[in-house]
Design a protein that fits this description.
Elements (H helix, E strand, L loop, with lengths): L5 E6 L14 H14 L6 E6 L13 E6 L5 E6 L4 H10 L21
Parallel strand pairs: 1-2
Antiparallel strand pairs: 1-3, 3-4
């Protein structure tokens, strides 16, 4: 079984209501992720998969979706992203090991300082 340095999960769920990530930008974002990791020769070290509905589609505009990235730190980061954001996320998070704070889904951050 291969060892991966990163995992990118893209929500591309389609529903009849037209409001889910797959109805918005999910398929386009996932295609852009595949294209970008191929361009950077990361296909053997970054696993890309679809994820089921994360119930975050309400935060996404019509060309966006939820994307969850696990990088070298082993921590999952939730993003709201469109196809134009993918290059930045791959360059900064996957390659550089730095979260892209401007794209982080603030509603899905875990507040470690205020846990009981």
């Amino acid at each position: 079984m291969p060892t991966f340095k990163g995992h990118i999960m893209v929500c591309d769920v389609v529903r009849d209501d037209g409001a889910h990530c797959g109805n918005k930008g999910g398929a386009e974002v996932k295609a852009k992720v595949m294209q970008t990791i191929s361009k950077h020769k990361l296909r053997s070290s970054v696993y890309v998969s679809s994820t089921g509905c994360t119930s975050q589609h309400r935060l996404c505009d019509m060309n966006q979706c939820t994307m969850i990235v696990y990088g070298s730190d082993g921590e999952g980061t939730w993003y709201v992203a469109n196809p134009d954001d993918v290059e930045t996320i791959v360059q900064e998070h996957i390659i550089g090991g730095r979260k892209v704070d401007a794209l982080v889904n603030d509603g899905m951050k875990i507040d470690l300082e205020n846990q009981g």
